[in-house]
Amino acid sequence: MAAKDDDEGILSLFLIDDHPVVGLGLSLALQGHSRFRLVGSIANPLLGLRTIETVRPDALIVDLVFDGEAELAFVAECRALLPHALIVVFSSLPRRFYEREVIDMGADAFVGMRICPCWSRRSPKCWTFREMSRARNACLARPVMRL
Question: How many domains does the chain have?
Fold first, then answer.
């Protein structure tokens, strides 16, 4: 059963990313937007696949790097489970090298985040509210087929 609100115009979003700050950023980017509802987030990609199979969200925002390893095939696995969902890759990997590949694997959009050299080495991944808003806007750009 797909994650749905009573209101047909609301898109259910699910986040799979192992950085808690990204979940916080997504929550902030969604504040005041009545077209979205964050139905869950998970840091582990394997648990994420099991969860989205049950939750069946309208849209996914996923990272490509988990525990320091690029998991490009993860996008294809998400697409196989949710053929009609919108999949937005939100990653620190360079867009020019990865965008075409993840779209070929089934992603609908690639939103890159900047690496900020001023952050500590413990947290090299840097996102901005503007970039998280770009991920949200990518979800708005394409209508989702509802089953």
Answer: 1
Domain assignment present for residue 64? The answer is yes
Q: Where residue 58 sits, what CATH number does that domain have?
A: 3.40.50.2300
pTM greater than 0.85: no
Host domain of residue 40: 11-141
- CA dist 34 and 37 (Å) reads 8
Q: Which amino acid is at 7?
A: D
Residue 69 lies in a domain: yes
Domain assignment of residue 1, yes or no: no
Is the CB of residue 13 less than 8 Å from the CB of residue 57?
yes
Identify the pLDDT of residue 51.
96
For residue 21, what is the enclosing H or E element? Answer: helix 20-30
Band (pLDDT 50/70/90 cuts) for residue 144 is very low
Q: 104: closest CA among 81, 73, 134?
A: 73
**CA 26 to centroid of chain Cα atoms:** 9
Per-residue pLDDT of 51-94, as tens digits, reads 999 999 999 999 888 888 888 899 999 999 999 999 999 887 88
